[in-house]
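Entry under discussion copied across for reference:
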Amino acid sequence: MQYECTACGYKTAKWLGRCPQCREWGTIEESVPAHRTVRTQAKPASQGTGATPITEVDRTLAEARSTHIPEFDRVLGGGLVPGAVVLLAGEPGVGKSTLLLEVGSWTARQGAQVLYVTGEESAAQVRLRAERVDALSETLLLTAETDLGVVLGTIDQVKPSLLIIDSVQTLASADVAGAPGGVAQVREVAAAVIRAAKDHAIPTVLVGHVTKDGSVAGPRLLEHLVDVVCSFEGERHSRLRMLRAVKNRYGPTDEVGCFDMTEKGIESLPDPSGLFLTRTATKAPGSCLTVALEGKRPMLVEVQALTDKSPGTPRRTVSDLDSGRVAMILAVLSPQFPTGELDVFAATVGGMRISEPASDLSVAMATASAIVHKPLYSRLVAIGEISLSGEVRQVPGMGQRLSEAARQGITNAIVAKGSLEGLPVPPEMRVREAEHLLEALEIAGIPLPQVTTEQEE
């Protein structure tokens, strides 16, 4: 008798309440070892297909076909390739099923036959969602099934132009022991579906669950088997959804697709920068603009900071920013500003998460503006990384960042010294270079308070 962890695949000879490898509780289940066949020494086949010169391979078999959802095509590299298998992972409720339902609907409206397999909901529930997002189509076929054999039989019978399975953890094979979602079941289900997709040249999208840390649930082999791994992200209280390609055999992995989650479904956002800016015309202290690069896409984001006199131990509250970098920036500011005596709250507008160092300068300037209660001059964007000595360092993609800022009507910019070498500066922008953080604050018109320290004679 053998026991196996359904989360990470750890095997043990006795039952345990907690897996010693992944530290999850209640994931150890009894598993029946698969029967192994005795293999003899491999012998060459009498006849084979033969090798083909690479110049004679038909490249049209790997050409992408558009899904008619621009942001989805952007991440995939142009669309879905026949026979390609895409794994779409994301947290519960982020909108994976809604997105794929619209993908299937748009494909069906082009005259293609789409098979949507749901194992988590009933057919009636999917029908209600399809009505709400206007995704009904006569060629969009729906089946609520969890048996792998039945699903494979349906695929052979229908031979769809697009296959959607929601989700891979709900299907189970009668030939493999274990509960649905277990390591052995997920491995067998994924292998069978991928084999069917390759044999019939059917583009397939699999929905995958995620663990607490955001990684794809199940064996790591699942990510190696599929052709594309996408992560669908978004805060539950925000309308913004982002699609990232973690692995892509047919396109880039540095593209990001932006979507707007509404009551009528998910809509592509070709220009999402407006979601990350305040709507008021009044310029308030503690606000600075920056341009973040998400993959290859520059997005204008507003960083806000609020400071207050601390009655005791100073608090540091950060939302959608890297807390470690914010703490470092406050330490760099401390010789000129009393950051050690203040509660500091830093966040971005619209729920846009920024983790790249290019936002350091904007965070520092927003914090300094909040401390002295003086707003920065209007339409200013700050882009640069700050070192521990206060030096403003160059960041990649400056040309794209400045072009996006100019497109959004920004007229002033502060960047690191040397960032403009060989770059065409937008004519409507006034770009100033700063070598040190104090120089950048002086350019922005932020006065430096006098911080006195007691010194022993």
Observations:
- The radius of gyration is 27 Å.
- The first strand starts at residue 2 and ends at 5.
- The CA atoms of residues 256 and 294 lie 6 Å apart.
